[in-house]
Design a protein that fits this description.
The protein is built from 13 helices and eight strands. It has 269 residues and is of the alpha+beta class. It has two domains: 154 residues, Jelly Rolls; 105 residues, Homeodomain-like (Arc Repressor Mutant, subunit A). The radius of gyration is 20 Å and the shape is globular. The protein starts with 5 loop residues before the first strand and ends with a helix.
Length: 269
Amino acid sequence: MEDDYCKILKVSEDRVFPSEYLTTHHVHILVRKGTMQFSDGKSLHRSSEGDLVIWQMSNTIKDVAYCDDFDATFLVVTPHFLQQYNPEMVWATRGFIFIRSNPSFHLHESSLALINESFKLFSNRLEKPESPFKRNVLGCVLQIFLYDLWTVYSSELSQMEANDNASRIFLRFIAAVQRDCRRHRDVAHYANLLCIAPKYLSQVSKSVSGLPASEWISFYSAYELVTLLNDQSKTLTEVADIMCFESLSHFSRFTKKLLGKSPTDYRKN
């Protein structure tokens, strides 16, 4: 289990800045006072009181600067912790797209109240004594936070989907992958469903998310594979059948390529 998988910090009290966690955590910053600025490699962003800033580890964040009286509360979570307790894959992907283009956005009164409530819940639970279930409880709090976060930018996402043809194609692709990745793991299958060329689908995926279509297929396939392998009631043969592999050897090679271990070794660990 990784250390420091989840923390709530405040700049003025803890004497640390969000940028100190850039290389190890996903960072969610609620600006309380002053201003900060940063570059995502494409644009320079300036954030002030009432703004929520989200730095995903997959994004390029650089040239971070804070004004002298800057103060913020920020939540940091490790990628593994976020992946383990992510409650919903399609909305998580939508959020990934939105945040990639909007790493900083202003919170209106009701949205600010939601995020404040989630941050307070994290603080309260982090202060509780250690227990066998503390990580699980914090995982549940993380799920509440994610649902609140998706609620905050759901209207912006709907607008983005309505106005951006590439986003519409990408989200239809993601929904199809989530539904079919146990049976189909080639780009051509999904391009055919969307009535577009495989090369164009990969171009759309790259332009919207920064990742080619094949990587999203691998990501969702790994998610399904790990879910099935973690279910000890299923034999490896049953898992291979559910994932539609023609042979156990093919299944074993695929698992080793995707997870770095054979199915047997994965279960042993």
